[in-house]
Amino acid sequence: MRAASRARLFLAGLAVRHSTAGQAEVQRPGATAGDDVVGVPGRRAALPVTATDHLGALAGVLATAGWASRPRYEEIPALLRVFSPHLPALGESVWVKPGVGGVPWFVSSSGDPIAPCHDLAGAVQGIADRLGPIAEAAHAMADEGRRGGR
Predict the structure, then answer these.
(1) Residue 72 DSSP SS3
(2) How far is CA 76 from CA 23, 81, 85, 94, in A?
(3) Cβ atoms within 10 Å, residue 75
(4) Which residue has the higher pLDDT, 24 or 34?
């Protein structure tokens, strides 16, 4: 089987398993994590990934990159508020939306796609591209204010 065919089958499987409703669903009735997949001995059923799972993973990577975030999973759709620790009043609310073929994407509060959910590095870069210049300007103004006050 060619690599392109395997990739298409893999992505098709992801599209079937991904749910962005924010609620955990199972692949088949009665399946639990760890059950054998019907007809595939040794293959385990996995619970589908939800929007909150994607947002939680993004929050972890954002924290490593120096961004602060606050989950707002009680909202519909579930949101992740992302902001600079130096400027908490200004930020971006990110949510998950199914894209082409059902592949979930991170989407900005303005509705612009940021990156597919499997590309966490791309999502962090997309958010940094949006918020970085504003955060840098706020940080520079704060530094200038501290120096001017001495």
Answers:
(1) strand
(2) 12, 13, 25, 12
(3) 13
(4) 34
